[in-house]
Amino acid sequence: MIPAPIDPAALPASVRLETGDGGLPVVRVAGPAGSAELYLHGAHLTSWTPTGGRPVIWLSAASLFTEAKAIRGGVPICFPWFGANPADPAAPAHGFARLAEWELVDAREEHDGVAVTLRLADSPATRASAWPHRFEALYTVTVGAGLSLALTITNRDTDAVSYEEALHTYLAVDDIRDTEVTGLESAPFINQLAAMSIETETGPVRFAAETDRIYLDHNAATAVVDGSGRTVSISTDESNSRIVWNPWIAKAASMGDFGDDEWTRMVCVESANVRENRVRLNPGQSHTLTVVFDVTAQG
Ligand code: BG6
């Protein structure tokens, strides 16, 4: 059964549907163990703060909040393609999901947090896009002492389909120059800044320049340890690709919705299924990518 939009009057006490930046609708969650904001535009999570802790998700102060653009920072959803679309260079980078208006279809208080579900389905606009298939996407964000993000795609078409996806998480760090990402040691990666060459590194990922890497066939847990000693652990289910990105100085300066000095305060560690790891679904089949964040040391 296709879930219907929820009546705002039926929301639990910890969830409110309000008007956020740029007049865009935002779901504000204030649960006992954590708080968060989730825009319907792009189903874009823009904050998560465990109670008593510091914000974990980074959002650019220069972000635009308009239906025409993806929000900068937070957790953009890349779907149904990642990066540029090879078949249609004019198609929006990272797919149409982060530009679409999603519906709020469920919100409930559960034992491990407050769970909010948004829904997107194909429309005349998506059917006219570079990925013209019938689909349903359900995205459940569970806000507690940890944060769980689960993106389920169902193939509602009569043919098999394939797609790429990424939960493009921007994490706040004290200083990128003192930050490391563990869990990717010795894993081969595609260096998007060196003609897609395949490289490996034995130690944790450290940052001294623009970094843009795709790790395929990798589903082990990772962690981000920033200069303050805070550790954010990231574990996933049904996600076989990782992307690690920081724009550094020149690229940050070239982006109109990214403050010139903000590159020091963020890192993207994305949980994905891209390239050879793209998902294939037969008619009626579903796939769920899940990522869970926990602050395992406060710093
Ligand atoms: C990352 C890509 O996932 O997203 C980078 O690996 C890209 O190449 C970055 O620059 C930001 O993309 P966008 O479209 O949000 O500016």
Derived structural class: mainly beta
Provide mean pLDDT, rounded.
97
**What does the largest sheet look like?**
9 strands, antiparallel
Strand order of the largest sheet: 6-7-8-9-23-19-18-13-16
H and E string: EEEEEEEHEEEEEEEEEEEEEHEEE
The count of strands amounts to 23
The fraction of residues assigned to DSSP E strands is 35-45%
**Rg, please?**
18 Å
What ligands can be seen in this structure?
Answer: 6-O-phosphono-beta-D-glucopyranose
From the N-terminal CA to the C-terminal CA, the straight-line distance is 45 Å
DSSP helix fraction: under 10%
Spans of at least 5 consecutive residues with low confidence: none
Shape: globular
Short recap of the structure:
The chain is mainly beta.
Any overview of this molecule?
The chain is mainly beta. The chain contains two helices and 23 strands. It has a nine-stranded antiparallel sheet, with no helix packed on it. The radius of gyration is 18 Å and the shape is globular. It binds 6-O-phosphono-beta-D-glucopyranose. The site of 6-O-phosphono-beta-D-glucopyranose has 8 residues, from strand 20.
